[in-house]
Design goal:
- The protein is of the alpha/beta class and 391 residues long.
- The chain has a single domain, classed as TIM Barrel (Alpha-Beta Barrel).
- It is 41% helix and 17% strand.
- It is built from 14 helices and eleven strands.
- The strands form two sheets. Strands 1-2-3-4-5-6-8-9 form an eight-stranded parallel barrel, surrounded by seven helices.
- The radius of gyration is 20 Å and the shape is globular.
- The site of beta-D-glucopyranose has 11 residues, from loops.
C-alpha cells in the first residue's frame, strides 16, 4: 500500500494573512515586531506582497494541479477600529474566494490566524471585555466573504495560542523550553468560548463546514513517561477535542513530535533540527490523525497544515511523501480525512523566526517578490492528479 486517497480528496496549499500579505500595520503582531527589545528576528514588512499578488498565487496553485487553497482574512483590515468596517477589505477577500472558484479551487477560509486588531489587543485581547461578542460580530461581518467557501476555520490553533503566555513566562524566568508547555487555562477557556460564539453565527449561515484547527503532534513516551503523556495530551488536545466534537470538521496541523519522560518534555530532538527548530518526524502526521479520529468519532478531519522548513527541496518531497504514506495508512485504518493543504504555498514570514525558515512550495524573492516554484510544487500537483503517491 503506497497511499491511495478517497475520491474527492482535496489537495491544496495553505497561507495565512499576516505571513504573506505585507503591510499589516494595524494588528498586534506588527506592534510586537517593532517593540523595543522585540524577540522577532525581523519585522514582517511587505511579506510576500500577496495582498496585491494573490491572483498570481492562486494561478500557481491551480496550474500545478492542486484543487484547494487555504488562506486567512485579516480582522484588522476588515474592522480597523472597533465598529468601523472596511467594505473595501471585505470585497477584497470576497474576490479571493471568487478567484478560487473561478480557477476550480476549493476555498478554505480562516477567520483568525493568530493576529488581532490593535484595538482588540489593547483591550485585553481574547480575555478582554466582550471578546466573544466582538469575535461573533467579526464573524458576521465576514459572512459575505464566506458564502462560497467550503470550509471555514474560526480560530487557528487555539491550543498553540494558549501556550504563548506560558512560554513568555518561562522565557522571562530563564527556564529551559523543550517543546510546547501545557496551555494557560484561562486563555484556553476564553478562546474556546470565542470559538463557540463564532460557531453559532456560522451554523446559522452555512452551507460551508465550520470548525477550528488544532496543532497536533506525536507524543512519544520515554520510560516512565506514560502518565505525563496523558497529562500533556489532556491539556493540549483533549479539552479542545471535547469542544470540537459538535463541529462540522476539525482541522489538524501536524509537523513534529515531543518526547516526554517522567518529568515532562525532554530536551533535544532525535534528528538534525529543521529550520523551524523542530524534530523531522514525517510519520507524526499519521499518528496524530489516528488519535484525532479516535477523539472526535464521526467528525470529518482535514489536514489543514503539514510541511517542513528546509532549504533542501528534495527533502521536502521525501518528507511529504513519508508523511502522506502515514496519512494514507491512518485513512485505511478508518480515519475520515477529507483533504490536505500543505504548509505553505510560499516561503513566508515565520513569526518570531522571520524569513529564515523556508516552508514554501514556491520561493519568493525578498526584493522583487518574484515567485519561483520549487520542484515540490509540481510534485504535489502530480500527487493531486493521481490522488495518491506513485508506485
Ligand atoms: C501555524 C503557521 C506556522 C506553522 C509553521 C503553524 O503552527 O499555523 O502559522 O507558520 O505552524 O511553524
Amino acid at each position: 500500500m503506497t497511499g491511495a486517497f478517497p475520491p474527492g480528496f482535496l489537495w491544496g496549499a495553505a497561507t495565512a494573512a499576516h505571513q504573506v500579505e505585507g503591510g499589516n500595520v494595524n494588528n498586534h503582531y506588527w506592534e510586537w515586531e517593532h517593540a523595543e527589545h522585540s524577540p522577532f528576528a525581523e519585522p514582517s514588512g511587505d511579506a510576500c506582497d500577496s495582498y496585491h499578488r494573490w491572483r498570481e498565487d492562486l494561478d500557481l496553485v491551480a496550474d500545478a494541479g492542486l484543487t484547494a487553497y487555504r488562506f486567512s482574512i485579516e480582522w484588522s483590515r476588515i474592522e480597523p477600529e472597533e465598529g468601523e468596517v472596511s467594505r473595501a477589505a471585505v470585497d477584497h477577500y470576497r474576490r479571493i474566494v471568487d478567484g478560487c472558484r473561478d480557477r476550480g479551487l476549493t476555498p478554505l477560509v480562516t477567520l483568525s490566524h493568530f493576529t488581532t486588531p490593535r484595538w482588540f489587543h489593547r483591550d485585553g485581547s481574547w480575555q478582554g471585555p466582550n471578546a466573544g461578542d466582538r469575535f461573533a460580530r467579526f464573524t458576521e461581518l465576514a459572512l459575505p466573504i464566506l458564502e462560497d467557501a467550503a470550509y471555514v476555520v474560526t480560530i487557528n490553533e487555539p491550543n498553540l495560542m494558549a501556550c504563548l503566555p506560558v512560554l513568555g513566562r518561562m522565557g522571562a524566568q530563564g527556564e529551559p523550553i523543550h517543546g510546547l508547555p501545557k496551555p494557560d487555562q484561562a486563555l484556553t477557556d476564553a478562546l474556546l468560548s470565542a470559538h463557540c460564539r463564532s460557531m453559532d453565527v456560522l451554523r446559522s449561515a452555512g452551507p460551508f463546514a465550520a470548525g477550528l484547527t488544532l496543532v497536533g503532534q506525536e507524543y512519544l513516551a520515554e520510560d516512565g513517561g506514560e502518565e505525563q503523556v496523558a497529562a500533556y495530551r489532556g491539556a493540549m488536545e483533549d479539552q479542545f477535542f471535547d469542544v470540537a466534537k459538535g463541529d462540522d470538521f476539525v482541522g489538524m496541523q501536524i509537523y513534529s513530535c515531543t518526547h516526554i519522560g517522567p518529568e515532562g518534555p525532554r530536551a533535544g530532538v532525535d534528528s538534525e533540527p529543521t529550520l523551524a527548530f523542530m524534530e523531522r518526524r514525517p510519520q507524526a502526521l499519521g499518528a496524530a490523525i489516528t488519535r484525532a479520529a479516535e477523539m472526535v468519532p464521526g467528525v470529518p478531519l482535514v489536514v489543514t497544515e503539514n510541511g517542513l522548513a528546509t532549504a533542501d527541496d528534495d527533502d521536502r518531497i521525501r518528507f511529504t511523501a513519508d508523511a502522506l504514506r502515514s496519512l494514507a495508512e491512518a485513512i485505511a485504518a478508518g480515519a475520515d480525512v477529507r483533504g490536505y493543504t500543505h504548509w505553505s504555498l510560499l516561503d513566508n514570514f515565520e513569526w518570531m523566526d522571520g524569513y529564515r525558515p523556508t516552508f514554501g512550495l514556491v520561493a519568493v524573492d525578498r526584493t522583487t517578490f518574484a515567485r519561483t516554484p520549487k520542484p515540490s510544487l509540481a510534485w504535489l500537483g502530480e500527487v493531486a492528479r493521481r490522488n495518491g503517491l506513485a508506485g
